[in-house]
Design brief:
Number of strands: 11
Bound molecules: iron/sulfur cluster
């Protein structure tokens, strides 16, 4: 059984409220941290090996150490709660059921970074959660854990919640900052990076909700103890939101030592494939990471068991790489049509492209159009090669990672499931009435 650090108290009635959270030991990590120096806390975070939980997996302590500190210029912490990646809903769970864990993590992080005004930028569709967060902020303030002169330390900190307008691209950190400044959420060219010029051109750290919540147990048990959980560079615990054709969709906390097979089939987690079907494929880290066929998902190319961690999921067999990503684990059973699935994703990325760069703006639209044609049985064999060519021209040629995120699923689908694309071309009549999965398994 995986060790629980973040969700250990999630089942307790009333844990959303300050009184209950405090009774369970809440805010003791903040009390401990505020007696330390910011440098000592930073060392603990570095020692913990915590990697950003939003998708990129960049070491949090290193990110914090890049923060510029020019004399007299305010610095900011911004929590990225714009969780819009298809298949990902673990931050929603944290904010909805454990808002004080996030607020406590923000207090410790703000103190470390020297941010007196910090923000939570939350996805617009999570319309009921800002009220929960704002209530928690008020409670923390009333108890002296936010506001002026927190716990007599002389440190002031305010937290504000900003609702997004429903654009996926605002999950990209520089688009988020633009939106937070009240502008259209277009990604910025980097450099300069937010650590030097972020919100209102001030040094800014943007971190995911789960990353900031993880600061609480790190301070609580120490960075060294946190680093002992997990394996290699995949330290600590990770939240996974599991969905698709499984018996038990939900949010699970794992310690990254379990195998993918155990995660899918064990009753403790996904409980196996729904309706007794066979596993066909999986997208292990949200829609932006490549789809992986069952044989490569359960075992590495060397025949070793594949583990639910950053290194093992990226190990061999995937020319474009795959990763933990945002922790959105989407399972597809044998009845699913990969072409239809890829087309749905292409439509999403085309819709969400901000339109600033030509390869993304035009390429995502072309990919969607061609996939639609193939899926309806109106495609030609050359269309599959054209699709391949378009995704190659998008990858690496755009301002922000949305271009890559749109290209990778198409590349992986063609690489691993080309026979399905060809089946649609060869069977135009059948592909209008059936999907490949139902017709072939
Ligand atoms: Fe906008 Fe797409 Fe370019 Fe990102 S890659 S800046 S979303 S057009």
């Amino acid at each position: 059984m995986s060790k629980k650090l973040l969700l250990k108290d999630a089942h307790i009635e009333g844990i959303r409220y300050f009184e209950t959270y405090r009774k369970q030991g809440g805010y003791t990590a903040a009390e401990k941290a505020l007696k330390m120096t910011p440098e000592e806390i930073l060392e603990e975070v570095k020692t913990s090996g915590l990697r950003g939980r939003g998708g990129a997996g960049f070491p949090t302590g290193m990110k914090w150490s890049f923060l510029a500190k020019p004399e007299g210029v305010p610095r900011h912490l911004v929590v990225n709660a714009d969780e819009s990646e298809p298949g990902t809903f673990k931050d929603r769970y944290l904010m909805e059921f454990l808002p004080h864990l996030l607020i406590e993590g923000m207090l410790i992080s703000s103190f470390t970074l020297g941010s007196n005004v910090s923000y939570i930028y939350i996805r617009g569709e999570y319309s009921w959660i800002p009220d929960i967060l704002e209530e928690a902020i008020e409670e923390a303030k009333a108890a002296g854990f936010l506001g002026k002169n927190i716990l007599g330390t002389g440190f002031d900190c305010e937290i504000y919640v900003q609702r997004g307008g429903g654009a996926y691209i605002c999950g990209e950190e520089t688009a988020l900052l633009e939106s937070l400044e009240g502008k259209r959420g277009n990604p910025r060219l980097k450099p300069p990076f937010p650590a030097v010029k972020g919100l209102w051109e001030r040094p800014t750290v943007v971190n995911n909700v789960e990353s900031i919540a993880a600061i609480v147990p790190i301070i609580d048990i120490t960075g060294a103890e946190y680093a002992k959980i997990g394996v290699g560079r995949s330290t600590g615990t990770k939240l996974i939101s599991a969905c698709g054709n499984i018996n038990k969709p939900g949010v699970y906390e794992i310690d990254m030592t379990i195998t993918v097979e155990e995660f899918i089939y064990s009753d403790e987690y996904c409980g196996g494939i729904a309706n007794g079907k066979k596993l066909k494929a999986c997208i292990p880290g949200g829609s932006s990471v490549p789809i992986v066929p069952a044989n490569l998902l359960l075992r590495t190319v060397n025949g070793e068991p594949r583990y639910m961690n950053y290194e093992s999921l990226a190990d061999g067999g995937f020319a474009t790489g795959t990763m933990m990503g945002s922790g959105g684990f989407i399972v597809l059973d044998e009845d699913q049509c990969i072409v239809e699935h890829t087309m749905t994703l292409a439509r999403f990325y085309h819709h969400e492209s901000c339109g600033q760069c030509t390869p993304c703006r035009e390429g995502t639209g072309w990919m969607h159009k061609i996939l639609k044609k193939i899926e309806k049985g109106e495609g030609k064999m050359e269309d599959i090669d054209l699709l391949w060519d378009i995704q190659r021209k998008i990858e690496g040629n755009t301002i922000c990672p949305l271009g890559d995120a749109a290209a990778w699923p198409v590349a992986a689908a063609i690489r691993h499931f080309r026979d399905e694309f060809e089946w649609h071309v060869k069977n135009p009549e059948l592909s209008q009435t059936q999907n490949y999965g139902l017709a072939n398994y």
